[in-house]
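Give me C-alpha cells for this 287-residue protein.
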Amino acid sequence: MSKPEDLRNTPKIPFEILNEMNAGWEDALGALSVLMTDEMLQFIAAADYGYEQEKCYKLLKEIIREQKPPQERDFDLFECLELTRWLTPSNDLEHKCRAFSCTLLLMFTHTSNYEPISDENETIVSLIDSVVALKVGQKEVQALLTWKVLADYKLELDGYLEDEEDKEYIDEITIDPFFIYGLLLLMLLNDEDDKAINQVLKWSVDMEKDVKNIPPFANEYRAKNITNEEKEAPYLLRTTNFNQRHELWQSLSKNVLKLISKNSVELNYSDLRKVLTAVGNNEPMRF
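Here you go.
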C-alpha cells in the first residue's frame, strides 16, 4: 500500500539506539529506593500540609518494599509527589526526596492511571538535576527516560492502529523534544558511545527543524502560517508554556558543555556546542 500524499515528513526516531539502551524503570526505582530513609518518606508524605500523611507514608513504604507501583490510583499520593517535585533542594536529603518523587511520577504514567497535571519537562529536569547533584543514579535515570520514550511512542502507536485510516499516518508520530534533550544530556554525562550520542543529537536538532518548518521537514501549509516570532524562537524551551524549570534546563546545559571533550574524533562537537549553547542561553540555534 502506497503512503498517503498528505503524509508529513517528520524526524526519524532512532529505535536501534533506543532498543540497545537497557530501557526500564526498575533500576531507577531500585537505585533511589536504597537512598530513602523513613525520615525522607515522611517528608514526602507530609508535602500536602500533612493531609493523609500516614496513608501516603505507608504507600511509599509499600512501593519500596515491593519495588513496583501501587495497584490502585491514589490522588493523595500523587499530590505529595507533585508537590515534592517543586522543591529547590538545599541539601542531599531534599535532592533524594525530589529525585525519588520525580522517578515515581515518570513511572506512574505507564504503570498506573496517573496523569501529569502539568508538562513533564519540569519533572525530567528536576530529576536529572538531583541525580547529578547526588552523583548517583544517572545511568539508571537514562534507562528510565529511554523506557518512557518507548512507552509514550507505543501508547500513541496503539491509538493510530485502532483506526484503519490512521494506520497510514504512523510515520508522523514524534516524541516530546524535552525527553529527547534530557536523554542527550544524560548520555553525555554517562559518557555513552559517541556515535549513539550523535544520533540522539541529530534527532533533537531535527525536532527543532520540524517545529520551525525547516527542510527537510518543511511543509507548504505550515510555511504560510508560521510567524517570524516562531521562526526566531529559542531552541527547545519555547515549545512549552510550562517554564518554571527553564532555568534548570539552562544551567544543566551550560554545565554539560563544560564537561564535554573536543578531542573525540567521532563526536559531532560543533553541533553539540551549538545546541547546548542555545539552550543554555535560551536563544535560537542558527542552522
